[in-house]
Design goal:
It is a single chain. With about 600 residues, the protein is an alpha+beta fold. The chain has 3 domains: about 200 residues, Aldehyde Ferredoxin Oxidoreductase,  A, domain 1, CATH 3.60.9; about 180 residues, Aldehyde Ferredoxin Oxidoreductase Protein, subunit A, domain 2, CATH 1.10.569.10; about 170 residues, Orthogonal Bundle (Aldehyde Ferredoxin Oxidoreductase Protein, subunit A, domain 3), CATH 1.10.599. Helices cover about 40% and strands about 15% of the residues. The chain is built from 26 helices and 17 strands. A hairpin with a 5-residue loop joins strand 14 and strand 15. The mean pLDDT is about 95.
């Protein structure tokens, strides 16, 4: 077998044991890798109904057949688990040298179960696997931890690690690498913390076996060259995703004041144009020639790496109108191992709760000093920070009253930085994302602003599923970055060709889309198995967008229509081959070779 190793490394931290599981070629053909491999492992081996923060949960680190190879933006891996934030499927991808080294070490995935009695880190060097003491690392932030591990093991390693937020099991703690690469929004860092696993260090020395290395090299060289020649490349290098601030303002989708509005009078104080003036460097993931990390010097005279999501969530969403202060909060969140999107969303929620008198504490909009204190207190679960550490879904339920109306989440995962009062298609993308309200799987809003903004039609649903197949299916299983295609328009045809050259298994784009549909249906089956009280209403976006119309901007007075959204959701289910409850139909499961899920789903919800 080429392209894949056929080997999964298992680690039991409770028993201090490691072993190798060998997988058959058909599994790889049907799930490819990354997210596909991760959800298959979780379905097959995770005990249903377990507490995500118990030793019984599994943490899966998975690469794909294109991960870590010298081709555009391939330095990615997926970290997945049952989420402590949502209680459903959770994952995230990270740009990291750990992807490159895991491939060279000879593994397609690492699966970690159990929990150590004291802090440990996992050291992997080819066939040598050791569980090492990490008491000297416990309590350090992510930047300090990476520095220490590099001093101990040298620079030629890959690292995945957590900060104080993961150690204290903040429900949206992430996994960090390379001092700013962050992944696993639904609490993958908290899962590591619950296992007393501070870090994973990987060093590989062997090159992965490829079916057609010459052809892959040719395709890679052509793709790199095409990226450099794209019309948008120069502007992308200057601003990256930060250009979205102005775009979002112009299209009335910039999250403002806890997603109350879609425009902000002071958007220029956090814009990509301003960032360009402050920019001193850029950073990127392994094998990337269009780095997206814009580095500025923050208010503390330290370097911070900015992109659109963290700037919007720590800027307009909480009315903080100073990019250098926004940068300092972002850098602090990365050091502590907090998801910036959920943290910014939780801050917006608590500010509104304070404004409405639902909590005793006064938390004013745009108060930098208080925000900074709350971010630190959240990571250490101190005072009000312990409340924030639970995320907006739990906070809103505990506060009661109308708090759930302004809790901006889907299935427990806080929404990323796009207001959807006048974007029903993007609202559906959030509603049907396989991890909760995240833009990664389908950034439909980029197309939607060019269409009828008020339409709830079949065309939008078709485009949504198309994007999910590419972004959430293909890229998340290959596993490579989507940005060369999304941002500069790299030809999509490169990917099935590169996959074929790497593995020797002929794939067309349509065949990859079938794998994507299989992955989405299996993730949906996992949600139904794990989520208490499944219904179609878990696929609905935040009630704020239905109940509270915009009051500013070109779409003042507008909001989503509940009935029309429901009909659009029906269209989505129909096109997916799911019933009106959002449950995959029996014939769909059989068609996608997911027969093994049928008895479980039949017992829980019954199948149509």
């Amino acid at each position: 077998m080429k392209g894949w190793h056929g080997r999964i490394l298992w680690v039991d931290l409770s028993r201090g044991k490691t072993w190798i599981q060998k997988l058959d070629p058909e599994t790889y053909r049907d799930y490819i890798g990354g997210r596909g491999l991760a959800v298959k492992i979780l379905w097959d081996h995770l005990k249903p109904g377990i507490d995500p923060l118990s030793p019984y949960n599994l943490l899966v680190i998975a690469v794909g057949p294109l991960s870590g190879l010298p081709l555009p933006s391939s330095g990615k891996l997926v970290v997945a688990s049952k989420s402590p934030l949502t209680n459903g499927y959770g994952d995230g991808n990270i740009g990291t040298m750990a992807s490159v080294h895991l491939r060279k070490a000879g593994y397609d995935a690492v699966v970690i179960r159990g929990a150590a009695r004291k802090p440990v880190y996992l050291y992997i060097e080819d066939d040598r696997v050791e569980i090492r003491d990490a008491e000297h690392l416990w309590g350090l932030d992510t930047f300090e931890t990476e520095d220490k591990l590099v001093r101990e093991h040298g620079r030629n390693i890959g690292t995945l690690l957590i900060g104080p937020a993961g150690e204290h099991m903040v429900r949206y703690a992430t996994v960090i690498s390379l001092k700013g690469r962050s992944g696993g929004r639904p609490g993958m860092g908290a899962v590591m913390g619950s296992k007393k696993l501070k870090a994973i260090v990987v060093k590989g020395t062997r090159e992965p076996g490829l079916a057609e290395p010459g052809e892959l090299r040719r395709l890679s060289e052509a793709a790199y060259k095409e990226i450099l020649g794209k019309e948008n490349y120069d502007f992308w290098i200057r601003q990256g995703t930060m250009a979205t601030i102005v775009w979002a303002q112009e299209n009335s989708v910039l999250p403002t004041m806890n997603f109350r509005e879609g425009v902000w009078d002071y958007y220029e104080t956090i814009s990509g144009d301003l960032m360009e003036k402050l920019k001193i460097n850029r950073r990127g993931c392994p094998y990337c020639n269009m780095q997206c990390g814009n580095v500025v010097v923050d208010i503390d005279a330290l370097e911070s790496e900015l992109d659109y999501e963290n700037v919007a969530m720590f800027g307009s969403n909480i009315l903080l109108d100073d990019l250098r202060r926004v940068a300092a909060i972002n850098r602090l969140a990365d050091q502590l191992g907090l998801d910036t999107i959920s943290m910014g969303n939780s801050l917006g929620f608590i500010m509104e709760a304070s404004e409405k008198g639902l909590i005793r504490e006064r938390v004013e909009w745009g108060d930098y000093k208080t925000v900074r204190e709350l971010v630190i207190d959240t990571a250490y679960r101190r005072g009000l920070g312990s409340f924030l550490a639970e995320g907006v879904m739990r906070m809103s339920r505990w506060l009661g009253g109308n708090a759930e109306d302004f809790a901006i989440h889907v299935k427990g995962l806080e929404a990323s930085a796009y207001d959807c009062h006048v974007a029903p298609g993007m609202a559906l993308a959030y509603g049907t994302s396989p991890i909760g309200a995240h833009h990664k799987d389908a950034w439909l809003i980029g197309l939607e602003v060019k269409m009828d903004r008020f339409a709830y039609n079949r065309e939008k649903v078709e485009k949504l599923i198309y994007l999910q197949r590419i972004r959430g299916g293909m890229f998340e299983s290959l596993t490579t970055c989507r940005l060369p295609w999304v941002e500069v328009g790299l030809n999509l045809d490169y990917y099935p060709k590169m996959l074929t050259a790497a593995t020797g298994v002929t794939y067309t784009l349509d065949e990859i889309f079938e794998v994507a549909d299989r992955i989405y249906a299996l993730i949906r089956a996992f949600w139904i198995r794990e989520y208490d009280g499944w219904s179609r209403y878990v696929d609905y976006p935040p009630m704020r967008w239905f109940k509270h119309p915009l009051t500013k901007g070109p779409f003042a007075g507008s909001k989503l229509d509940l009935d029309k959204y429901g009909r659009m959701l029906d269209m989505y289910y129909e096109m997916r081959g799911w019933d009106k409850r959002g449950v995959p139909r029996r014939e769909t499961l059989k068609k996608l070779k997911l027969d093994y899920t049928i008895p479980v789903l039949e017992e829980i919800v019954g199948l149509q």
